[in-house]
Amino acid sequence: MTALRSWSGACTTPPEIGLAPGLIAEIMAEEFREIPRSGFPIALQPMIVPRNSYLELLSATAGLISLLRKAVVNLADDRPGRMAALGIDPADCPMFVPDEDFELRHCADMTRADVIIGPDGPKFIEFNVSGGFGGMAHFLLYQQAWHRIREAAGRPAFVAVDAFAQQARLIETTCAELGVPPSAVIVGTPRDWGPGTGSRVFDVQVNALRRHGVHATQLEFDDLLTGIGLPGNLRTHLGIAAFTVQDAATVGYDLSPVRAALDAGLLLVPSQSAWFLHTKKTLALLSEGQPWMTGSETELVRRYVPWSRVVGDREVWWRDTKHHLPRLLVDRKDDFVLKGATGCAGEEVFLGGTISDEVWSCLVEDAVRTGDFIVQERVETQPYPLDLLAESGEINRISATPVVSPFCLGGRAAGCYVRFTDEGHQASTIGGVTARRTCLLAEA
User: Fold this and answer.
1) Are residues 317 and 175 in the same domain?
2) Superkingdom, according to UniProt (predicted)?
3) Are residues 337 and 427 in the same domain?
């Protein structure tokens, strides 16, 4: 298998950038003005990998997304059957439309994978399938900032794929399918990023789409119906669902205007059926293997997905030996991570090696009882060296523990967002205000 050193490149020291830290900080401050979860400490380098590794990561992302969608289609013959097979709570899915063909065609339209770089390269630990996964605006601004920085330093261009070019293509093809001009409304609120957050996090996205020839706007929920022409004829037929039902419940905003817009003919991408891909149970089913999978599909999952299973009172194969799953998890807890099937932002993620035997046993018992958890074999994260600039001007070199997040829009993989902490944090997932951020680029 590919060793880390060859996959990530020569990563004993941070990559050379060639520009003074103060100038890097100035460019970052300009790009990230009014953007939440940015600022000090600032990573003085992006994460840079060889071009072949970058292309491999994008290819694996697109391949696995396609396979997740195929798994959903093969779960059952209809929507109720799929919901039953995955144990989906109908309350989590209030935005279905009657057109089941549209639902399935567009369930995988917007995805952000979370990837750990292990000893043998990338391992996909989960997929966030929705329009509200976050990170695309941050990635775009990092991409722009590092382009400016390398130009100022006289360095060769980095290799990266523009996520918004791919999203614009998705909008264009979907609008052509609907027989309308290419336009879309981003349905969402900056309140998801915290109180007092301004509109720039959406302005960046709207302007990026417009640069690619798509008429885009952003509307808050209270403004949605009048903004798309209701009551009356729809002025906009396609929406980007930049929200989740769970965020709405947490932050406290009303999604009934979205339901009313759908009833009046607005369509959203990704469709509500994205939840079938978002649940980690679907990834676990692929890891366990399904009778319809081809040899190449089985190999794709084996290569890039850690051993994962839906937790239940049953027998499983692990490392070529048959085990009673609950007993295996209790006996070998340091090898495993328990994850809530639909938890987001690090919620319901438990690393066996960081929890007492008693608490872990209770968690396993609860996971078996509810049927709402998966287990993954823990991947040993390989550190990546980065320099962090503090607001005081002090520079600290850390061994970053990164989670790399490639986007996939309309079946095409695009740029990679990165969240990281220092090496002391095992990366089962990384998010929230404590994580630092940069992006992954490739060598020219």
Assistant:
1) no
2) Bacteria
3) no
